[in-house]
Amino acid sequence: MDLTVPGYAYMFGFLQADGHLQQGAGKKGKLTLEVNARDAELLREFQRLTPYNSSITERTRSTNFAATHNSVTWALCSFEARTVLNNLGLPYGRKSRTITPPHGDFSVRDYLRGVIDADGSVGYTSRGFPFISLTTASTAIGTYFSKYAMEVAGVERTIKRNTRDGIYNILYTMEAAQRLASDLYYPACLSLARKRTAADSLSAWARPAGMRSAYTARRWNETEDRILLKLHSPTAAADVLDRSPQSCNLRLWRLRTGQVPMPSSR
Fold first, then answer.
1. Nearest-5° Cα angle at 11, 129 to 177
2. SS3 of residue 63 by DSSP
């Protein structure tokens, strides 16, 4: 499962957010992932991506939200497959607060799209404004997503657990949501069809006349990247580049971790 491959990165993000890795005696156990029956095609795609025997079953039950709920469940029992997933960062048992971005290199936007498809929302608010959001109990995931959104959309979020259930609700609206959706849901990417359709629809929105102008993100260029790397100090670079220390710190982190390409040498 090479997480630099977009399909696997997406699948791992989805599994971290919505899958369940169960451990039994010895080598017994299984991975399960249950989704609404309308999203069954995604599970079939996961099954095609996985070179181990697995099954997909359907069931109908009543829930707190509907008298009749149709769902499909993907089950994978291979010990070798479960070990690979566990080593990459999918814990056994309850995991909502403990999951972190994958260990090692991975395709970032595909991984985050998987997390959003499982635990996020994309669409329009009741006032007709584009939005994209993530609901997570994991501090590591919430922080990582907000840092990524800062780079892509140019909007800073200070994440904080809500007082009711201790969950992070991270929301981006209007132009920021458009930029994020365009980046995460690129053409022909693996994703939930309904969320990809919703993400595509956001590009049609235009800020109403008379509404205060939106903040336009200032993009980094290679010259600035070279200066930042040479100075090796977010504080010093902030004075030279006329940027905030936090912006310089985030950019330096992304360069060091390979989240953005290094500038070409001159």
1. 15
2. coil
Contact 243, 156 (CB under 8 A): no
Cβ-contact 189, 110 below 8 angstroms: yes
Q: Per-residue confidence of the chain (266 residues) as pLDDT tens digits?
A: 899 999 999 999 999 999 999 988 888 899 999 999 999 999 999 999 999 999 999 988 777 666 677 899 999 999 999 999 999 999 998 777 889 999 889 999 999 999 999 999 999 999 899 999 999 999 999 999 999 999 888 888 888 888 888 899 999 999 999 999 999 999 999 999 999 999 999 999 998 888 876 555 678 999 999 999 999 898 999 888 988 888 888 899 989 888 889 998 76
Residues paired with residue 54 on neighbouring β-strands, in sequence order: 76
CA dist 133 → 13, 18, 176, 178, 179 (Å): 15, 16, 11, 12, 13
Dist. CA 171–CA 151, nearest whole Å? 15
Residue 217 is given by DSSP the state P
Q: What DSSP designation does 214 have?
A: P
